[in-house]
Records
---
Amino acid sequence: MTRRVSIFGATGSIGQNTIDLIARDPDAYDVVALTGASNIDQLASDAMRLRADIAVTADETQLDDLRTALEGSGIEAAAGQAALTEVGCRPADWVMSAIVGAAGLAPGICALEQGATLALANKESLVCAGQLILSTAKANDARLLPVDSEHSAVFQALVGEDMDAVERIIITASGGAFRDWPLDKLASATLAEASSHPNWDMGQRITIDSASMFNKALELIETREYFGVRPDQIEVLVHPESMIHAMVGFTDGALMAHVGPPDMRHAIGYALHWPDRRALPVDRLDLAQIGALTFRPPDEVRWPALRLAREVMERGGLSGAVFNAAKETALDGFIAGRIGFQTMAQVVEQVLNDTDPGHIDAPMTLDNVHAVDQMARQAARDVIEHKAG
Ligand code: NDP
């Protein structure tokens, strides 16, 4: 039986790793849709290699280029947000959600509405609209599988376990590019320095978010949403080697750790083959050679994003959508050279503090999430303007 699969964000780091796994067994999959944004050559060549039904770019100005690149292949080309949402609604058995940012939310919701299994790398969706995603999955009998390495690790450690016996969840963090930098040097960190990760090969945005720990902050909220535990049951542990991805602590004192190489094809492959385990092309760890694994507590002065995430979890409602939108806009500001590395957290904190409680407490519908997202982006742009000016 072939499985119908779609990959949203196919041209990115997670998308390419997903294609690597699927292309190893082409007869097992019938590829429905691949989506991308700016990388038209990659999108078109993967669509032709995997014989997809349709390729979609988020960027409407690139539609002609995509059509030209696909000419003669019989593969449909489309562009823009409406097209992304439309392919989200095309029947598929398994969908990889790997668009970066809140833009991944609407296509993911559509995939759940048509009952697909959604492999969720796009953590921003859960941060912005966790309850909406979970209720949509439930209402449509659709399954949500985590792809973030930490959440895949927790998911695997929980197989066969009773959630009532879970005392705590520990997600690990490498500490990113500036883990060992003197604090007073952080203000002058450059884009190139922030864009280099010591262990993982990922897209630029998540790499910078790892250096600032905004990535881990999103993952704290993602953990709460996905596993339904209280914020005080979730811990972050700095683990520079990135071999243990997460641990689950049980009421009898046992800690179940998931250990594996820093290669996203493990978590993607687990979600692709779940509930089975299949052979995956990832390195096997030689722990004797590694010798030692080290751990340290997170430093909330170095990484204020962690404190902000805890405030968001306490606040609830649509504060996750505000947090994520302000974070994405602050990151744009840092990438554009308008604000410094440490100013990103200041921007997010100010937007959170200034947001009208009426926005946060609005019902969690897709329209309200979108409206709050837009409002927070504008507020963040205003703060950046003020700070940069
Ligand atoms: P990349 O930046 O490498 O790729 C992002 C993908 O989204 C690309 O296909 C890109 O297209 C597309 N894209 C960008 N902007 C838009 C938009 N506005 N609308 C639609 N599509 C868009 O990101 P990653 O693969 O690193 O990350 C993807 C998601 O997975 C993120 O949510 C990230 O947090 C999460 N994740 C990533 C991990 C990793 O190892 N990389 C680990 C765990 C989670 P194009 O390239 O053509 O412009």
---
Amino acid sequence: MMNRLDAGLRRLVATNLIGMVFVDLAGKILDVDESFLHTIGYARADLPPRIHDLTTPEDRRLDDEAFEKLMAFGACAPFEKMLVRRDSSLVPVLFGAALYEEEIACFVVDLSQNKQTQEKLNHLAYHDALTDLPNQVLFKDRLKQAIAMSRRNDQMQAVLLLNLDRFKTINDSLGYTAGDRLLQSVAQRLTSCVRESDTVARFGGDEFAILLTHVPRAQDAANVARAIKETLDQAYLFDDQEVFVASSIGIAVYPTDGRDTASLLKNAGAALDRAKVQGGNNYQFYTAGGTTRALKQLVLESNLRGALERSEFVVHYQPQVDTRSFQLVGMEALVRWRHPSLGVLYPNEFISLAEDSGLIIQLGDWVLRTACEQSMAWQDAGLAPMRLSVNFSARQFQQPTFISTVADILKETNLDPRWLELELTESSVMKDPEQAIEKLHELKLMGIRVAIDDFGTGYSSLNYLKRFPIDTLKIDRSFVSDVCKDPHDTAIVRAIITLGHALDLTVIAEGVETQEQLQYLSSLECDVLQGFLFSKSLSASAFEELLVEHQQVVPFASSTV
Ligand code: C2E
Ligand code: MG
Ligand code: MG
């Protein structure tokens, strides 16, 4: 046993994993090994005489305590301390000692590697890997500290949120590597614009935040914002190509615009929105009182009309699959607005505006024409034809020219009417049910299918439902989302499916997000499913890939296995 221990110790010492030093009871160094010399950076010849000479004054107390324990118990538990190297730098070590016949045998483990790794990890946790700027966590921490300080000395702080205008376009056109380099340059330029005591952080993507501490007047924050913009507005060079990038900044000031980190960041965000709404390439202060929302509406309204001419709308397509086979059986056309400074806007942000302003008529026609053309292009390319659902607003449906417009577009695009399904909401057909019945009959005669969208949220009298010549019921997302949890919703979904089947209608569930919902809906014999579990809405090119590659869309969770 002893032999093995001896051999083991020798091996450990030989690998330099630990260093050894022997001292007498007064601390005089008697002997050391190579590993110890290596750790402290001394040659044997110029080693100082006493172990204390290698200790920092701060660690003397630790040494004294260890010595007491050594005297009392014959050994001391290992502890961390610093040793002073020959070049006066410090090295963190684990230090332990045992008494052996009037001599003290000490071992030393160099922890600097360990500490460096630890520090690196720590750094990574609080910094952005691409730009090495502080990340959101560290920024919030600094902001919190600054606020705590300000409470004491009553000083103003400013939070600036900055976003590059059209960064996505740059990324798309120059490639991700150039995009990354651009973000790094932006980080450098931002840092050059502020004082040492300020913090520049990257929150992710093209979102940066700046904390200006001790701002004497709000105007000073504006001056910095202006300087930042001027610096960022300078050309960036990529392979001899000059690239210009505009930016937008939102400013919130402590204490007037918020007294804690959350509200300051939120309000700086609102100010940034305002800068974007005003076309980007400017900075804005936060203004209280919810003016932002109203302003956004106003700007959207005035932008909406031109948007169609400027080709800012796009149609996306969401797959619909057969419940039993997951076979792709249809697609729903969903419109998106690629706003030049606000990014992609979803229908809930602009459809009602378009309805109020009447633009929904032109927009609706455009969506129908685009979707029919696309569908026809796919068929011409030899891809399997399938049902195309297009949403219609009540206002479109009520137009006297509604039927003829649909007929014209079908004729123009050459799409066989049997592939087209119009989605009308329950409320749009129930506004004037008698007139609706007439129109629906005309659609039927043309060979077009009709679906009632968001079914269950309005109030269709069963009597009318029987008389509407429709083909499909779409169960509203709100019932589907709780179908497994809320017994009322389960009952409603079951009732809609039974009712639909009794009337010989296809029943589609929309907003299917989970495996449980899928299981439930399939046990209730719902015919068709649509939802994020299968796919989000896709751009025309992404949908085309789907058409080419699979005729089947597997639910998300099982497709990843
Ligand atoms: P909708 O006709 O009920 O369309 C379904 C909406 O649910 C779409 O939202 C779709 O993206 C979303 N959705 C689909 N699957 C899921 C899911 O699993 N989970 C969740 N949470 N949502 C899901 P989107 O595209 O924002 O459209 C919203 C509404 O805007 C549509 O509701 C439709 O009423 C209207 N809309 C969209 N495009 C047009 C259009 O071209 N014309 C008219 N008039 N209305 C449109
Ligand atoms: Mg719909
Ligand atoms: Mg719906």
